[in-house]
Design brief:
Blueprint (H helix, E strand, L loop, with lengths): L17 H26 L17 H6 L27 E4 L5 E4 L1 H5 L12 H19 L8 E4 L5 E4 L33 E3 L4 E3 L5 E4 L5 E7 L13 E7 L8 E8 L6 E10 L7 E8 L10 E4 L2 E2 L11 E8 L14 E8 L5 E12 L14 H9 L2 E10 L8 E4 L10 E10 L2 E8 L4 E7 L5 E10 L3
Antiparallel strand pairs: 1-2, 3-4, 5-8, 6-7, 7-10, 8-9, 9-17, 10-16, 11-15, 11-17, 12-13, 12-16, 14-15, 18-23, 19-22, 20-23, 21-22
């Protein structure tokens, strides 16, 4: 029998009589009615496609959402049930799990407790012990007068033995750990009133504190002065007395301030080295950088300068709310194969580069530059006696008041030597200013060599004449 494919409803048969088809059609309509009725019953309990509901129409939804947290809520570690005291932890503390299962803050040393390390686990220890052993061996060799060793004995002009022991590094400051002179800004010969200071114009450079070259590439002038630390301050280790202040009355929008010192002798440091400074300034995130320049001097055909950025700088901003300490580590390239100029003015330079962008005071104090990795030390700064530090500065700059008297003879030109307590690096450039005079004369004329310094005046009358003035001698790199 013919039926429909889905619901098997009977279909008409073309060979059947009409009266037979009537009953077949009647059956098909009854079956269709039943199918449609069943579908209507099922659809009656359904929702329209794409329909919506208000939250209140859904039973229990409002109550369920009321017990949930806001999507924007944030959490601290102390919100966790197994963490206690994290918010009050000191800087750089760790979370350590206790016997009760709770995590609590602790210093790294306390967390580790008493423990041991193999020599090979401590970076650089084996090399340092080897160097120390070698130095002791060479010193012993010198004392035994074994001439085939690096350390040996020579004789001075009087025939006395002089011990020669190889230094751990070279240069004019080979016996001092800190290669920077006047790192605490205690010597300020160049400025008449250190607390007032001098203005370094935009685009200019100037030596202000002895040995320290300030280069201003910003678009605003900066006043460089020396100020006192507050007594008892603890922000800078060792409680130094002085700090250098760089003051901007107008905020710069371009350029940098570079505070640098040129250490005589490019061979002074190579390999691992550490720089330390203490900085602060207006609150912000202004960039700080540190670099080393190896300058091979002038004269002849010296090698080109090599600039090396710090391999690591623990805090690369001028301001940090937690600390003023800045630690820079360097891997200074070897000078093997380089050529040093013939004029004796080669140097290795440490430069701290500040990018100021605010009105206010930027301050530095207690700077050091030492061999090796000093990052774990509280402060590698090595203070020297005040007289010793002043004498080191005088190799590069001296200033003094002087008197030249001319006898009562017309056209008489006396020469008055100026004693140099410290021989200067090279024959200095000289300048002078007059404090007071008496009589008629011309001059003075400045005469100098590396060992001697003096002043002439020419008498232009038959009476005695006097010149009192200040002489400045500059032999900086």
């Amino acid at each position: 029998m013919n039926t429909t494919p889905n619901f098997n409803l009977p279909k008409p048969i073309d060979t059947a009589d009409v009266d037979e088809e009537f009953y077949r059609l009647q059956l098909a309509w009854d079956m269709l009615d039943l199918i449609l009725f069943s579908m209507v019953q099922q659809i009656a309990g359904k929702s329209n496609l794409g329909h919506g509901h208000a939250i209140g129409d859904i039973v229990g939804l409002v109550a369920a959402l009321a017990n949930k947290m806001d999507a924007t809520r944030t959490f601290s570690l102390d919100d966790l049930t197994d963490v206690d005291g994290a918010a009050e932890a000191a800087l750089n503390y760790l979370l350590v799990k206790g016997s009760d299962g709770k995590w609590m803050p602790s210093s790294a040393s306390a967390a580790l407790g008493a423990h041991q390390h193999a020599q090979g686990d401590i970076v650089g220890l084996t090399d340092d012990l080897t160097s120390l052993s070698q130095a002791i061996d060479e010193t012993a060799a010198a004392l035994a007068d074994k001439q085939d060793r690096v350390a040996s004995t020579d004789q001075d002009m009087n025939g006395r033995d002089v011990l020669n022991v190889r230094k751990v590094n070279g240069g004019q400051l080979s016996s001092f750990r800190n290669k920077l002179i006047n790192g605490d800004f205690s010597v300020f010969q160049r400025v008449a009133v250190p607390t007032t200071g001098v203005v370094v114009a935009a685009g200019a450079s100037a030596y202000v504190a002895d040995r320290w070259l300030v280069t201003n590439t910003t678009n605003q002038p900066v006043t460089v002065s020396r100020q006192l630390h507050i007594l008892g301050q603890a922000a800078v280790p060792g409680r130094p007395k002085f700090k250098m202040r760089l003051a901007f009355a107008t905020a710069p929008t371009t350029g940098t301030i570079r505070v640098a010192q040129r250490v005589e002798g490019v061979e002074t440091l190579d390999g691992a080295a550490s720089a330390r400074a203490h900085l602060t300034g207006p609150a912000g995130a202004e960039v700080l950088a540190c670099e080393v320049v190896q300058n091979f001097g002038t004269g002849g055909a010296p090698s080109a300068s090599v600039v090396t950025a710090a391999s690591s700088l623990d805090i690369a901003t001028i301001y940090n709310a937690a600390t003023q300490i800045r630690k820079a580590q360097f891997a200074i390239p070897s000078i093997a194969g380089k050529t040093i100029g013939s004029n004796g003015n080669d140097f290795v330079e440490l430069g701290w580069v500040l990018t100021p962008r605010q009105v206010g005071n930027y301050e530095l104090s207690q700077l050091s530059f030492v061999e090796g990795d000093a990052s774990k030390e509280a402060d590698p700064f090595s203070p020297r006696h005040k007289g010793q530090e002043f004498a080191l500065c005088q190799r590069y700059y001296q200033t003094r008041d002087h008197i030249v008297d001319a006898a009562g003879t017309n056209n008489y030109s006396p020469y008055q030597p100026v004693a140099l307590p410290v021989q200067m690096r090279v024959a200095p450039t000289g300048s002078h200013s007059t404090i007071s005079t008496a009589g008629s004369f011309s001059g003075p004329t400045i005469s100098y060599t590396a060992e001697r310094f003096g002043a002439y005046i020419s008498n232009t009358s038959a009476t005695s004449n006097t010149w009192v003035g200040n002489i400045k001698m500059d032999a900086e790199l």
